[in-house]
Structure prediction request, 211 residues.
Amino acid sequence: MRQIELVSFDAEGTLVTPNFSETIWHEAIPALYAQKTGLDLAQAKKCITEEYNKIGVHRLEWYDIEYWFSWLDLGSSEPVIQSCLCKISYYPEITEVLSSLAGEYRLIVASGTPLELLHCLLRDIKPYFARVFSSISHYGQVKNPDFYLRICEEMGVKPSQVIHVGDNWQFDFLNARQAGLNAFYIDRSGENHQDSLSDLTQLEHFLMPSA
Prediction:
């Protein structure tokens, strides 16, 4: 596929395991809320989940840690972020795949995670990427087709020259395809949905058959 110039990756669920984010959103924040309100942890988790669901994934606030710390009156988010850094981990094949592809293609990250968390998530693999894009921080939008078109414009490529891979069917696969990109859906659940990748070695083999 020599017409491909750029390979784009989602971050969480694609390059980075969900452990860091799950710990922040579903453990640390509820624990602070429980401490603040006097609820037990199970009750606090239920309340926090209900608050998340009221906002939903199509609104920018859902992704904004500063919004939640302000709304819930939890103080500064920085100590919580720092305390959860030890939870950051990458999928086993990531270093090998990125090392291989970086010699042949320009690589970027195209994520819906705000930059203050995205920089943490990518701290050990950031040198592989020419650019890191956050739909929330850079453009104030979720990962819709316009987001992908704006990336193409900034990177000086046509949508047909880009591969994007991610683990969200709507945001990473359907929306990227609607923008004209070559999109791949990564499904690490082992359910092997049609046309999905089970890990990124399959993408490497597709792009570099001799790998």
Notes: The chain has ten helices and six strands. The radius of gyration is 18 Å. Residues 19-86 form one domain. The chain has a mean pLDDT of 93.
